[in-house]
Amino acid sequence: MNARTPAEVVTAASTPADSDFQQHALHREERVWLETNCYVDLWIELLHHYRCDPHAGLSFTVTQAFEGDQFTFPKFSLDDIARLYGLQAQELAIYDTLEAHVREQTRRGQMVVVEMDAYYLPDTRATAYRQTHTKTTIAIDAIDTDAKRITYFHNAGYFALSGEDYDGVFRLMPGLASDVHALFPYVEFVKRARAPLEGHALVQRSVDLLALRLADRPTVNPVAQWRAEFPAHLRALLERDPAYYHLYTFNVMRQLGSNFELLSKYLGWLNRHGVEVPVEIQTSAQAIASEAMVMQFRLARARMRSRTDACEDCFDSMQASYDKVIEPLAACFL
């Protein structure tokens, strides 16, 4: 059996690109939802790496809607990232080996954001590593093809992998390399186009983008829409296996709760920078985050006891809180 290289959280002594790596405050301060999703958490740390404040780009949170079987997957707007931070994220065509393209782009000082199989990412040891094949997004900042080693951002951390894991992520193993039906992954590269906005200019551009996002806000309370569909969702949760429960709660409760927690953090940032937002709006956004977590725990107990819990009071709370967030924000900024 080949030895497996363990996950290595890159420390100040071994980091080749950022010897002072520390998580951004959004990942260190107290939160109900410690993580959002791999894309949002990755970009928080990428922006921090580029010495930019991720708070300014969080206006996307006001557009979250209910999509029938899930809530809109929160994502930073790449257009907003360009306007605020001067960073361009563009699709990278993969016509050679992924390894070759990563080598070229990182040689040019650019970050490569790529969809990977978490099966080969040792930092996912507690969930997917050598257990299950699942898609996730990482950002590679350095590669050593001779040593077969990369350093990369993933979720809220900065890690390294090498050896057999390197061969796995780049599909260099004989069984993977010979698979003629394997599709190229979706890849982006990030480059510096201009200096980021700072100070008042950054805050003002963020407010301008918030107004644009509020113009695209949902026309119907999405929590109310979810509530109407929930009886059918609940039957499925009670009938299907635990894996389905975890997938459902990730795509529904976690995306809703973490999105509004980020919105609460964003509104707090605006207030700290002289943009007055009524405190009730911020606290109501945080209330949605907290109640979504309460509901997740209640459904876990209901599953274990094979009992129905319609969570009516959770819906009452979240619906009322939503009504105190989005339309009042629109009244402030439109």
From TrEMBL:
It comes from the Bacteria. Pfam families: DUF1839. This is Serine--tRNA ligase.
